[in-house]
Design brief:
Low-confidence stretches of chain A: none
Largest interface: A-B, 36 and 45 residues
Number of helices of chain B: 12
CATH topology of chain B: TIM Barrel
Structural class of chain B: alpha/beta
Number of helices of chain A: 5
Oligomer: heterodimer
Strand content of chain A: under 5%
CATH class of chain B: Alpha Beta
Structural class of chain A: mainly alpha
Order of helices and strands of chain A: HHHHH
Radius of gyration of chain A: 16 Å
Strand content of chain B: 5-15%
Order of helices and strands of chain B: HEHEHEHEHEHEHEHHHEHH
Strand order of the largest sheet of chain B: 1-2-3-4-5-6-7-8
Shape of chain A: globular
Largest sheet of chain B: 8 strands, parallel, barrel
Helix content of chain B: 40-55%
Number of domains of chain B: 1
Distance between the termini of chain A: 40 Å
Number of strands of chain A: 0
CATH architecture of chain B: Alpha-Beta Barrel
């Protein structure tokens, strides 16, 4: 782990229980880390959420996505576009980035790289035009 | 094109069914197991290790159904396999003519009888829908060409009855945007929740591009209702629904009345295009249910809208 990743982990672990996926989406998910979901879901709650809002896998904890959804609406001081991004389709995790600094990957744009087959043809054409 | 694909295009009533799982036996044994429900269904789900219990694989099951003249819907879950294996399964099934795909995140391993297994979840449900869409467009996720793209009919699932309730329709819309053309819904024992969910999708215009197919489950008594309530993640059965069946003079008959009522209610909601039937009774109730609902067997149903309207009345 490089120095930047060490500092990042030191800051984000105690606050968000950061798992160092290297492609942080906290700002889009109500400042709630989706990698703490036992299924590591990045696109919303699974269908197994318990009646009381607790996790299917770990009943002792509240569903990460129930929390995220609530916070994306209610957290103060959050820019509106962070709130608006909540329902974006987030791409599959790039497992090569695990353990690297998402701050560095954000600056270099590495965290926004997706597999060539991920973007539908229509959208890819629109982006090129 | 698959019959399900035609129905989605032409607007006809869609009846799907949950095919029984396979644990050993021959094709002939399986044919006998399918016999009760199959004549009523346009297509049946070839499930993918339901509730995290190992069974004959989804792909093998879909091919078996195909050989027996039953149109399969290949369920693909994210729990057991990574994206490479998921693509291989979809392409492998397509080789055998399986076009209907249903993308699920899937129950966790802790829901099954081998909780010590490693969970995968390389992708999640919405990502899997997008992946299937890429294959349909002729590319693997890597961008490598598929050659002749499979004519996939892509669908997904959603649970209208689990928290966060107000968010579920938005999550469904996300799946529709990712490429889902039909959504099979988890069984919902709170009619008000189902109604609010479907209404939100209908008002948002989403039901124009995606068929909503609620699940109904036929059970024999209060036992399975209690089981679903306590042991199946994401399903809650109100106490009064359980006692309504448990305290009835004839619990089996009351359980039938419940599923008939749920079916009528679901079909009455604007935006609902059909039903997904799950049968735990195995006593001819599915035929009775379809007849009571005015739904003829598949062989007598057309794929056009007129047929659908007939049932709604």
């Amino acid at each position: 782990m490089g120095l930047v990743s060490l500092v990042e982990h030191a800051v984000k672990k105690p606050i968000w229980d950061c798992r160092m996926c290297g492609q942080c989406v906290l700002h889009d998910t109500g400042m709630t880390c989706p990698m703490t979901c036992p299924k590591t879901l990045r696109n919303g709650p699974c269908g197994g959420v318990r009646e009381d809002g607790r996790c299917e896998v770990k009943p002792e904890m509240r569903c990460v996505w129930v929390k995220a959804e609530e916070r994306s609406r209610t957290l103060p001081l959050m820019p509106q576009d962070w709130r608006d991004h909540f329902n974006n389709l987030r791409p599959p995790v790039d497992n090569r980035l695990k353990g690297t600094s998402s701050w560095r990957n954000l600056l270099s744009g590495r965290d926004r790289e997706t597999p060539p087959g991920w973007t539908p043809e229509a959208e890819a054409e629109k982006a090129e035009a | 094109m698959s019959r399900l694909g035609e129905l989605l295009d032409q607007g006809g009533l869609i009846i799907t069914g949950e095919a029984p799982v396979i644990d050993g036996g021959t094709l002939a044994d399986y044919e006998a197991k399918l016999a009760e429900l199959a004549p009523w269904c346009d297509a049946m789900n070839a499930t993918d290790n339901t509730a995290a219990h190992a069974h004959a694989s989804n792909v093998a099951m879909a091919i078996a159904m195909q050989r027996l003249g039953v149109e399969p819907i290949l369920q693909v879950v994210c729990r057991d396999k990574n994206r490479i294996a998921q693509q291989a399964d979809i392409m492998g099934a397509a080789l055998h003519g399986v076009e209907n795909i249903c993308c699920l995140t899937g129950d966790d391993v802790t829901a099954g009888d081998e909780s010590e297994a490693r969970r995968v979840f390389d992708l999640d449900g919405p990502q899997l829908i997008r992946l299937a869409n890429s294959l349909k467009e002729g590319r693997y996720l890597s961008g490598r060409s598929v050659g002749t793209p499979p004519a996939l009919v892509i669908g997904a699932v959603e649970n209208p009855g689990a928290p966060p309730l107000d968010y579920r329709a938005q999550r469904a819309a996300k799946k529709i945007l990712a490429g889902a053309r039909y959504l099979q819904l988890q069984i919902c024992y709170h009619p008000d929740r189902l109604e609010a969910f479907v209404a939100a999708l209908h008002e948002g215009g989403w039901t124009e591009r995606c068929a909503i197919i609620p699940t109904v489950v036929a059970v024999k008594g209060a036992g399975p209702l209690r089981f679903m309530d306590s042991a199946v993640p994401g399903i809650a059965v109100p106490a009064e629904t359980i006692s309504r069946v448990a305290d009835a003079e004839d619990p089996a008959e009351e359980a039938y009345r419940l599923v008939l009522e749920q079916s009528r209610h679901a079909l009455s909601l604007p935006g609902v295009r059909g039903l997904h039937l799950t049968d735990f009774r195995k006593d001819g109730s599915m035929e009775r249910l379809c007849r009571d609902l005015g739904i003829p067997p598949r062989s007598e149903r057309s794929t056009t809208r007129a047929d659908h309207d007939l049932v709604r009345v």
